[in-house]
Amino acid sequence: MTEEILRVENLRTTFTTSAGEVKAVEGVSFTVNRGEVLGIAGESGSGKSATMLSIMGLLGDAGRISYDSLSFMGENLTPESVKTLRGDKIAMIFQDPMTSLNPVLSVGWQLEEALRRHKWQGNIHERVAEMMTKVGIVPADERMRQYPHEFSGGQRQRLMIAMSILCSPELLIADEPTTALDVTVQAQILGLLREIRNDTGMSMILITHDLGVIAGESDRVIVMYGGRIMEEGTSREIFGSPSHPYTRGLLHSLPKADGKRERLIPIEGQPPDLLNPPEGCPFVKRCSEAMRICLHRKPEALTLSETHKYSCWLGEKC
Length: 318
Ligand code: SF4
Known about the structure:
The structure is a single chain. By secondary structure, the protein is an alpha/beta fold. The protein folds into two domains: 4-89 and 171-191 and 198-271, Rossmann fold (3-Layer(aba) Sandwich); 103-166, no CATH class. It contains 13 helices and 13 strands. The chain has helices at 48-55, 79-85, 97-100, 107-117, 124-134, 140-143, 153-164, 183-200, 211-217, 235-240, 245-252, 292-296, 314-317; strands spanning 4-17, 20-33, 37-41, 63-66, 69-72, 75-76, 90-93, 171-175, 203-208, 220-225, 228-234, 301-303, 309-311. The strands form two sheets. Strands 7-8-9-3-10-11-13-12 form an eight-stranded mixed beta sheet, sandwiched between helices. Strands 1, 2, 4, 5 and 6 form a five-stranded antiparallel beta sheet that branches. The two termini are 34 Å apart. The structure holds iron/sulfur cluster. Residues 245, 281, 283-284, 287, 289-291, 294, 299, 312-314 line the site of iron/sulfur cluster (SF4).
C-alpha cells in the first residue's frame, strides 16, 4: 500500500519587488509517497525551485506564501515545525556544490556541526566518517581535516549528499543536483543517490530542467510552466504519451537516444513575464495550437487516468 509522506495543496508564492508583485507559484498541489522519486521539470522561472523553497520555509521575508494544506507524514507543517524537520527528516541539496560549503572551515567540522545542531545522540565523529565513506570520500578520517578547496566539484557534491543523509531523512529534495557537474560526474552522483535510496527507502523530489535525468530517475513527473503545473503523471505516461503542448514541445527539443538523426524543434519565444502574467493559459504566447479561449481563461486540470492529468483547453474539444 502506498504511504503518502508529503501533501501540498494549492500553494501560492508571491514576491514583492520594486516593479510589482511576482506570482512565482500559482495553485500548485501534489503528493509524494514513501520511497518514490517525484521529478519536477520545467525551464528557469517555471516555479519549481520557488515551490520547494516555500515548502522548506527558506524564502524568509522575500516571499509571501499561502496554501490550503501542507503536511508531512500526517502532521501539518508550520514555520516552526519546518525548522525542526529541515536537515533532519527533510533534507535538501542544492545546485552549486562550489558555494554550499564554508571555505574557511574543515569539511569534517561542517558535517559534525550539522549533527550537533540536530542534537545527534551517538558518536558524531564516527557518524560523519561513516557517511563520508558511504559517498566515497576516503580515507574519511584524513579527509575530514581538509578544506573545501581541496575537493573537486564532484567530491563537494558527494560531501553535500553525505551532509544531507547524516540524520537519515525521510525525504530528500535535490534541486538541480548535477547541473554544475560534467556529464561523467553527473552519472556518478545520480548513481550514488539511487544507491542511497535503495539502501534507505527514502523518498526524493528531483528538481531539474534536464528531462533526460528525470526520465532515468523518476517514478512520477510534474511539468511546471509559469508557476503552474501543466501536466503530471507517471514517467511512462509523461514520456510515452505526453498530452500538454508544452510537455510535447520539451520532448521534441531533446535528442533521441535511438541513434536516429532527427531535427530538434525548439520551443520559440520566452517564458511569461510573471509581473504581468497572461490572463489565460500561461503557455499561450508560445503554443502553436492556441485557440481564442486560451487567451482569456485558464484551463482546469483534465484527468486522463488515476495518475495522469494535464491543464489545456485542447482536451475540452475532444
Ligand atoms: Fe496551448 Fe491553449 Fe492548451 Fe494553453 S490551453 S497549452 S495555449 S492549446
